[in-house]
Amino acid sequence: MADSTTPDPYPLAEPGLWVERVGRTVFPAGTPALFLDRDGTINFDTGYPDDPAEIVLRADIAAAISAANRAGVPVIIVTNQSGIARGYYGWSDFAAVNGRVLELLRADSAFVDMVLACAYHEAGSGPLAAADHPMRKPNPGMLLEAARRLRLDLRRSLIVGDKKADMEAGQRAGLSQGWLVEGQAAVQSSFTIRPWCDRADFDGLLAAIAALGAASGAP
Prior knowledge:
Largest sheet: 9 strands, mixed
Strand content: 15-25%
Helix content: 25-40%
CATH topology: Rossmann fold
CATH class: Alpha Beta
Structural class: alpha/beta
Number of helices: 6
CATH architecture: 3-Layer(aba) Sandwich
């Protein structure tokens, strides 16, 4: 197992934060983004996934990402990876699994623009031991970091996830809406949670993504 604190050759902004720019697309300043959790949202969650051979994408997720690609909307993965802090696997295992996720998406003509992963957790050791780290969802740090690097308009962005922590991170980052996989609709002040449980909900998500592109003036 790789040493989880070794920065090379991985794109670690700090010992517990992976920030990977994928592709070379340049987006205009003020563009809204599609944020996605990974495990349980893009791929089925196998419980601390560390084997690329076990990765299976959720139905329709590639279509949602492709819709964002067509609309000129950046697609950003924001994923908690406490398994690294806990010593269950290392950054090398994360890299292999994440590479497989991106590979499967590309095979369905769906492309991700940035991946952020937070390995900090209170059950960790050494530099990865941190309680309530600002980068770990439900804190908004990963979304804010992506916005800083890509000059995004967070207010008009949306997040898709399978946990309340994903929705809370979106709300704290100032997003206006989130889509909860197999969840229920809810309104929290100015942040609206919409469900993604069936085909009608998914059609609504596609419409929301298209609206982001239209608001951005994308072709």
